[in-house]
Design goal:
Blueprint: H1 3-13, E1 15-16, H2 24-30, E2 35-38, H3 46-63, E3 67-73, H4 74-85, H5 92-96, H6 105-108, H7 123-142, H8 150-154, E4 157-162, H9 166-180, H10 182-192, H11 202-210, H12 218-230, H13 232-236, H14 243-266, H15 271-297, E5 303-306, H16 309-312, H17 319-322, H18 328-340, E6 341-355, E7 364-368, H19 376-381, E8 387-391, H20 396-401, E9 406-409, H21 420-424, E10 425-428, H22 430-433, E11 436-443
Parallel strand pairs: 2-5, 2-6, 3-4, 3-5, 6-11
Antiparallel strand pairs: 1-8, 6-7, 8-11, 9-10
């Protein structure tokens, strides 16, 4: 079928999003799904963050969603969650565990110290965190005594799905055990000492362990997680309203430590092994979080997820899936079925983006090249519509039109425009990858809280990976 025929069909089926109020249509299309995954075509486009925030707010207020889970590390996001869920008085749990409570949104985001800071330390997330705090306070103030209101007082949380926080997660486990079981804390400290000083640079640990330059620490992190699980019943029975939550947070940090050790040990054995381990960890964390919230509230939990398109679009419909990679979107569909899930991708044609030129390099404001011919981005651009929503699932004709494998762009925390075709494009079937997409034809660079470097030249370094 010709591209012109497809473009004309897209023009008929697209729902224009000329105002944020039009996002109500998107929320309606979510239906009864309890797991909504919101993507992004880049890690540094303002519009993607803003639109996801507005959809998330509506899912919370109109459909009773309980939490936000994001492509970020567990300890860093937990600091945000403590802030937005705390009452106006300082949360005793945070003080006990050695985490000075934040007094305003920017302080709550201080945990995001490692590269790329701008993914979460930016003006759009500051606004979302402030909204979450206000929303939770209003719910708490408006609630009445009784079992029905226990969920209201819990508040909407903000949680991390990723596994890069090896050192911080180990430290969090030891801090927790120091408050509930000092002897267990000493044992945990001894187990985690296996990493010596390499926990500060886990890639060095992974390299040394993989190539036999030192003993790996796999057994030690597994023993620690088993110990936490064995004693869970006793810790959960401790006094305090937050005992169950704090136990769950600590257990999750122990899981992060175990999976992070495995991730860094496998990352030198091939991209597929480490990628799959990471996305399986994200899916397992999401399931654990939903189970914890459901137990606390007494009914099924609803969670909205923020992650890159490459994580939330079903990998089976992409070139990466052909090469043996799986991802979060695929696993969520396989585990929970189509009725419980909704996968929303985002695309853009051109504009500007906040990204780096290499890993650990400063954030730069970069120009996004116009999308390549024969790509989905170019097809959506050629509709002439500036911003629109397109549902594909349950629309057979449209789904068939967008089933053909075409190029699709993915810009992570690194953007190499001079090597764009090789570094940032892959083949995918759009309608099988997502349930729906939002196309923003021209996007603008995200505004980090820290300074952004303006590039002085157009040379692109020969650096990989792209940082998705």
């Amino acid at each position: 079928m010709s591209d012109q025929t497809i473009i004309e069909a897209l023009q008929r089926e697209a729902f224009p999003l000329t105002e944020l109020d039009h996002l109500s249509r998107v929320v309606e299309e979510v239906g009864e799904a309890s797991i909504v995954l919101l993507g992004e075509a880049t890690h540094g486009s303002r519009e993607f963050y803003r639109i996801r925030a507005e959809i998330t707010k509506r899912l919370i207020t109109e459909k009773g969603f309980d939490a936000i889970a994001v492509e970020a590390d567990w300890p860093d996001a937990l600091r945000v969650s403590r802030y937005v869920r705390a009452s106006q008085t300082a949360p005793a749990a945070a003080v006990t565990l050695g985490d000075t409570p934040a007094s305003e949104p920017r302080q709550a985001l201080q945990g995001f110290e490692r590269f790329p800071q701008w993914m979460w330390r930016n003006t759009e997330i500051v606004e979302l965190v402030a909204w979450l705090k206000q929303h939770n306070q209003e719910r708490q103030e408006g609630s009445h005594q009784g079992a029905q209101d226990a969920r209201q007082q819990d508040g909407i949380g903000f949680y991390g799905l990723d596994l890069y926080s090896l050192r911080n997660s180990m430290e969090a486990v030891v801090r927790y055990l120091s408050t509930v079981d000092p002897e267990a804390a000493r044992e945990a400290r001894a187990r985690y000492a296996c990493f010596d000083h390499l926990a500060e640079d886990p890639q060095r640990y992974g390299y040394a362990a993989t190539f036999g330059m030192r003993k790996d620490c796999e057994d030690e992190v597994i023993r620690q997680l088993v110990a936490m699980t064995t004693e869970a019943g006793r810790y959960a029975d401790l006094d305090g309203d937050n005992a169950a939550d704090e136990l769950f947070y600590a257990q999750q940090n122990a899981r992060v430590a175990q999976n992070a050790e495995a991730y860094y040990r496998t990352m030198f054995l091939g991209r597929n092994a480490s990628w799959n381990l990471r996305d399986e960890h994200m899916a397992d964390t999401l399931d654990a979080l939903r189970a914890h919230i459901a137990k606390r509230k007494g009914s099924a939990a609803k969670v909205v997820v923020w992650a890159h398109n490459s994580h939330i679009g079903d990998a089976r419909a992409t070139e990466m899936g052909d090469h043996g990679q799986l991802n979060l979107g695929q696993l969520v569909r396989e585990r929970h079925g189509l009725a419980e899930t909704f996968l929303l991708g985002f695309t853009t044609h051109d504009g500007t983006v906040t990204a780096a030129s290499e890993w650990d390099a400063p954030a730069e404001k970069k120009s996004v090249r116009a999308s390549l011919a024969h790509s989905y981005e170019r097809l959506l651009h050629d509709t002439g519509l500036k911003q629109f929503f397109l549902r594909m699932r349950d629309r057979r004709y449209l789904s068939e039109l967008l089933q053909e494998r075409r190029l699709e762009r993915a810009i992570g925390v690194i953007y190499l425009p001079e090597n764009e075709r090789m570094s940032h494009y892959f083949h995918a079937s759009l309608s099988q990858q997502f349930d729906a997409v939002i196309h923003v034809d021209t996007t603008h660079a995200l505004r980090p809280l820290e300074s952004v470097v303006q590039p002085q030249h157009d040379e692109a370094p020969e650096t990989y990976p792209t940082g998705i």
